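Posting for a labmate who doesn't have an account.
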Amino acid sequence: MDLKSIAELKEEWSVLVSKMTEQFDVEPDLQGIIFLIGVQELGQGKRKFSKDQKQDLMHIATCRLLSTYGYYALTGVDEEGWPHWERIQKLPVLTMKEQDLLLKRAVLDYFKEV
């Protein structure tokens, strides 16, 4: 990703965070936004989740986000309505900063779709 692309991503990210801050009265970080995507993808509405369920929601969101790039595929939904994903391609080795940039780009692409 070149500097111009990174600058554009940061600007788009700032706009998204501002919109979400207005909507939720708190400035979400990347992990918070991924959690919200997990809740959205689960489709069971707002409710209390256990610590394990919160981790599962973050996993669902990450798989959904990375499915756009061909890394995961939805295999189905269990009897409780939780989606299950299969890794179909290994992710490249990335630094933490590169992982953040990939996830932020995936989040921005997600919100363009929905």
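Reply:
Got it, the structure tokens are right above this. The two ends are 25 Å apart (CA to CA).
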